[in-house]
Amino acid sequence: MTTTIERQVDIAASPEAVFDLVSDLHGYTRWLPSAGDYEGTSEISPPPIAVGTTYIERGRRGTRRGIVIALARPDVVAFHQPMTLRPRLAGTIDSTVSMAVAATATGARVTRRVELGIPRRLALLRPLIVKRYTRESERMLASLKAYAER
């Protein structure tokens, strides 16, 4: 069963500038501080970012091994980033994250969509997992907005 989380934010900056921030994995440390479930992105393929670029995000709860699966400047970037949980026996949360950027009269609207495949063995934890992913989407978008508008 797949769960979809979608959040939006309007940013007073050009769509191109916003897209460049969300697609530059090497530059995330400039605007997205480590916190909660996100402890940083590492082991990123050499620039430039393109479809096929890989990266790793290690955290207390598991390791995401991501790959860029779509990139169309300035409209969309998408990542497939399954997370192998700790302990490993807990399974893997399959996730695909897309960031769509659209022009508005005052700048850009960013829509972050997360599709989660949560293992059946974690069914009782589904509400908690969805809440954590939702909170991280909201934190990420707030950080992006604050940085892009400064």
Could you please describe the fold and organization of this structure?
This protein has 150 residues and is α+β, with helices and mostly antiparallel strands. The protein is 24% helix and 39% strand. The chain contains three helices and seven strands; from the N terminus they run βααββββββα. Strands 1, 2, 3, 4, 5, 6 and 7 form a seven-stranded antiparallel β-sheet that branches. The longest helix has 23 residues, at 126-148. The model has no long low-confidence stretch (mean pLDDT 94).
- β-strand percent reads 35-45%
Q: Secondary-structure element sequence? A: EHHEEEEEEH
Radius of gyration: 15 Å
* Number of helical stretches of at least 4 residues: 3
Oligomer category: single chain
Query: Would you tell me the structural class of the helices and strands?
Result: alpha+beta
Average residue pLDDT? 94
Overall 3D shape: globular
What share of the residues lie within helices? 10-25%
**Weakly predicted, low-confidence segments:** none
Find the count of extended strands (DSSP E, 2+ residues): 7
Distance N to C terminus: 40 Å
**Main β-sheet description:** 7 strands, antiparallel
